[in-house]
Write a structure and sequence with these properties.
2 domains, three-stranded antiparallel beta sheet, mainly beta, elongated, 14 strands, RNA Polymerase Alpha Subunit, Chain A, domain 2
Amino acid sequence: MLNRLRNNLGLKILSLLIAFFAWAYLRLTPNPVIATARFAQQISVPLVTTGLGADEISRFTEKEAVVEVEVPRDGTTIKPDMVQAVLNLDGRGPGIYNVPVEVIAPKLDIKSLSPASVTLAIERIEERQIPVWIHYSGTLRPNIVVQGSNVLPAMATLRAATGDLATVAGVRVDVPFAGAPENFDAMLRPVATDRHGVELPNLSLTPNLIRVRARFVVAGDGKH
């Protein structure tokens, strides 16, 4: 047995040393594949516009973009505020456009972006003077009538996009119909309405309060 161990002893020792150094190299040397490994992170960021004129507004259905970025495995988590998804509208007038989404993310590698572009409309913001009318709400009394009424100011200024202005048929204030003779005097909020009398929300009206005065009297009684 001893002779067998001594046979080619040098080669056996050399093989043992090679195996040891190979194990040490693999154990102690950083794996270049692991060291450079990267993983993908998806971030949802709001779509923002730039370059619009002060008298313009943009309309589009997409509100967010999903950006996939590559970050080092041992790196910090990428926060949404480190990435911007921008629609550059500089130099564009009213119309419909397909605008590419520009991602601003310094020092980050972008793998994918959705959507890559957005179809949008640009409209002008315009002003229009519209007469204010009174709408009497509630239960009408057969023995009570309105002897006189007025609104101050008589005109409201509506500021909105061209498309929204096209749907406006009038501006009204709602006055509750009195159940007995009285002098009504109050500040009321005007609302823009379409041709069916339905309120149109999110439209800017000036002033935001209208003074309304109305005199309710008994029908046929001219003394009140």
